[in-house]
């Protein structure tokens, strides 16, 4: 995590000074029965316990405090569910109570002020967004409609791998390109990127932007949990979010302008929507929509559609068995991780992939 140790040192110093002032105040509210958890420090709560790999730190803490644990991130109490049974309580039984995510900096700066389905509060807008994605992206008829696209991209993917026969292949890059091509053609009817240098949007640049989005949407940003320190941007995350926003917005604006030009060029009442962006732009013109869709809403949904690349890639990888390269031992595998919204190895894994499902399922 960027400047993690320096940030925590500064927080500890601030907490020590603040603790002296707290000695003059008394908490007279009656004690409440709360889930077990580590004792929080003044001001910073339990942030200092998370380390550079919060998922591992939380797992270790749950071994001590139980499957339902209460920690404090700054002044905000947070419940940690560490078993399938407890997760079910949050995600199914009490889903409506916990459906809204906290308003963090990532949602403000990378999702058009909480405009996509990931960050928007639970309510009419969120439900409308969910209906749009279910009908336009995950609908079986829409998936069948784009089968020729998947077949075409699949053949191109296999051709590229065949050309590299006998050479080491960084499979993540090729799979990311394959899924990005598929998803982008479903969402925007075009790849809008090229592998050639000097093009408007390069494939590598778009992949790096998506990687940065996943990282910044999963980090522990101190300013989110200790708001009066947010202006300092101790870890530099907000600066990176703003830089990422400019890059993503440039891409999103280009896509929307292109779609609007194509729509304007169509004959009266002859325009047929081909993708998610076309549908969103048509819906934005409807005056009787439950919640008005703004241009930022359209860009946020477009952006979210492209982020489905990671989910698609993860599902694809589950269809293979993995084994070590000949001569490689388990202890030779580096399992150090880079933390973010998704966790992936710091160093690429050298593995042999073997299909474990019938070919038609791929």
TrEMBL record:
The keyword Heme applies. GO terms for molecular function: heme binding; iron ion binding; monooxygenase activity; oxidoreductase activity, acting on paired donors, with incorporation or reduction of molecular oxygen. The chain crosses the membrane at residues 6-25. It holds the Pfam family p450. Keywords: Heme, Iron, Membrane, Metal-binding, Monooxygenase, Oxidoreductase, Transmembrane, Transmembrane helix. SUPFAM superfamilies: Cytochrome P450. Gene3D superfamilies: Cytochrome P450 (1.10.630.10). The keyword Metal-binding applies. Its cofactor is heme. InterPro entries: Cyt_P450 (IPR001128), Cyt_P450_sf (IPR036396). Belongs to the cytochrome P450 family. This is Flavonoid 3'-monooxygenase. It comes from Salvia splendens. The lineage of its organism: Eukaryota, Viridiplantae, Streptophyta, Embryophyta, Tracheophyta.
